[in-house]
Specification:
Helices cover about 45% and strands about 20% of the residues. With about 325 residues, it is α/β, with parallel strands linked by helices. The longest helix is centred in the last third of the chain and has 20 residues, at about 250-270.
């Protein structure tokens, strides 16, 4: 492994640097696998650990793609993050099609968490237990889980995950709560309430799907991390990409590079920021163009796995003298 990879440089700064992984290219694309193993020390399954893909039928789990990612991590001495146990999206149809009592919903959630977290006990070391439970105004999002169980579903999910793997680090994960504002205030309130009631919450994940012209100021991200540190919580940037609007001008790519550099610097300066995870790493495999029409070029390697200026900026920031 090169002494100048992101992975080794981040380890020297006591930081994990990771990427979300798609199971298909990991198995089919040699350059994808080689770049991932060389540059990153942590992997997040992009989709295959979500409820629908991993539990497509009530009596059937589909672990093969997730097994492949976790086994790749083990072979390459990488850590694995689990994403995600409870979310309103990407649920299997059978979950919402059936009528069931609150007790039935509790049993469903208990069985799912025990099966998934239990299978990867000690191999997946951190979980995004609940994903995106809040609206932008800070209220609880209307989800099948909330309608069935009320706010109790949040408590239950974290307790079940802790029972299934007491050593795993458990995170609440959300978007739009990276800087200071109404939604991040609500995340802090939620986290404080969890801790006041001795629920097993260890950290907050800040997704950080941002873009040129659409990113919270670094000083606000730093302030938000600091107030979570006051609660004794870890913070991880969990889904970072920095999209650029077409036409892709050199100036916009320079601004993209600055955003990547600034966010890494914020994380390095925050004692409680323990990981920075990109949502993918190559523009060849990115969700951005299909979700944000007219936007793209969001990651640090191009379509041919060549490092972009953003990669060079991250590496330089990591190897600069402390």
């Amino acid at each position: 492994m090169s002494a100048t990879s992101l992975r080794t440089a981040a380890a020297a700064r006591n930081l994990q640097i990771g990427a979300a992984v798609a199971a298909g290219p990991l198995q089919d694309d040699r350059l994808y696998a080689e770049t991932l193993g060389r540059e990153f020390g942590l992997v997040t399954p992009e989709n295959v650990a979500k409820f629908g893909p991993v539990h497509p039928e009530q009596d059937r789990y589909h672990f093969g793609p997730l097994d492949a990612i976790v086994e790749f991590a083990g072979r390459h001495q990488m850590q694995a993050r689990g994403h995600t146990l409870v979310w309103h999206s990407q649920l299997a149809d059978w979950v919402t099609a059936a009528e069931r009592s609150p007790e039935g919903w509790r049993g469903l959630l208990s069985d799912h968490v025990a099966a998934v977290v239990g299978r990867y006990r000690s191999r997946i070391t951190a979980w995004d237990v609940v994903n995106e439970a809040l609206n932008d105004d800070g209220s609880l999002r209307d989800t099948p889980w909330l309608r069935a169980l009320g706010p109790e579903y949040l408590d239950l999910a974290f307790c079940l995950a802790h029972q299934a793997d007491p050593e795993a680090r458990l995170f609440y994960n959300d978007y739009g709560a990276e800087g200071m504002g109404t939604k991040s205030d609500a995340v802090v309130t939620l986290a404080r309430d969890f801790l006041d009631r001795d629920l097993p919450l260890h950290g907050v994940g800040l997704q950080m799907h941002v873009g040129v012209g659409h990113c919270p100021p670094p000083e606000q991200v730093a302030a938000n991390m600091a107030r979570l540190a006051e609660l004794g919580l870890e913070v991880q940037i969990t889904e970072l990409d920095v999209r650029v609007e077409a036409p892709f001008r050199d100036e916009d790519l320079r601004r993209q590079t600055d955003i990547y550099r600034d966010l890494l610097q914020v994380c390095l300066e925050a004692p409680n920021c323990t990981a920075l995870v990109l949502w993918g790493f190559s523009d060849r495999h990115s969700w951005v163009p299909s979700f944000f029409k007219g936007w793209g070029k969001a990651l640090i390697f191009d379509e041919e796995y060549r490092p972009k200026p953003a990669y060079e900026a991250l590496l330089k920031t990591l190897v600069e003298p402390l």
